[in-house]
Amino acid sequence: MKLNICMMKNEVGFVFTIMLIEDDQTLFQEVKERLTQWSYKVAGVTNFSNVLQEFTEIKPDLVIIDIQLPKFDGFHWCRMIRSHSNVPIIFLSSRDHPTDMVMSMQLGADDFVQKPFHFDVLIAKIQATLRRVYNYNTEQPLELKTWCGATIDFSKGTVSNGTGSIELTKNELFILKLLVERKNDIVTRDELITSLWDDERFVSDNTLTVNINRLRKRLAEIGLGGAIETKVGQGYMAKEESSI
């Protein structure tokens, strides 16, 4: 059954980066597209001889890796990654021998998903792993964020600069957080709608437009009305200070 994109959500407001180490480009693109719909940022590998270096540059929050890869297998790269980082790792492989699963766990992997797989199972394992590793269900103080000369206080829901201070609604703050975390990248309307699906509330296309307009109006009160740019037919982008 195909899920409606508006009924899918990344469980939290944070944008997690997933590194997908998969040499089957058809499968890679399919999984990437589906994960992107859940508001995850997905990065692939360009050089399978240098996976560790790309891992270091990407700094992902979670790694999904196949066993059968060019040059070196997934076990090798799992071992290398684990020697440098405690990032969660999920194996995604067509190999079904018990020793493969045992080996992956011994090397420090967090889970094993066998191909062919149901995407709902994969996303459930991703969410469970992220929830467990990053403990994001507990209340933790949010950091202050500096953007375009203003300070965003996520705990108070305010944006302040030399011109003044404004208070944002939960949705306005959530939208701003998502855009600022990916500043100079286009965030699609579908991603925003998917991410805003929370507490069983339906966020329609029109509701998103209203929230974006209100956010811009509020930001304009402190001179940041042009800091969020519309990319026609694509989505929205938070600018850097130098580009305003």
Automatic annotation (TrEMBL):
Protein name: Two-component system, OmpR family, bacitracin resistance response regulator BceR
Single annotated GO MF: transcription cis-regulatory region binding
Alphabetic keyword roster: Cytoplasm, DNA-binding, Phosphoprotein, Transcription, Transcription regulation, Two-component regulatory system
Compartments reported by the entry: Cytoplasm
GO BP annotations, alphabetical order: regulation of DNA-templated transcription
PROSITE patterns on file: OMPR_PHOB, RESPONSE_REGULATORY
InterPro entries, per the entry: CheY-like_superfamily, OmpR/PhoB-type_DNA-bd, Sig_transdc_resp-reg_C-effctor, Sig_transdc_resp-reg_receiver, WalR-like, WH-like_DNA-bd_sf
Keyword Phosphoprotein: yes
Record domain OmpR/PhoB-type: where: 142-240
Domain of life: Bacteria
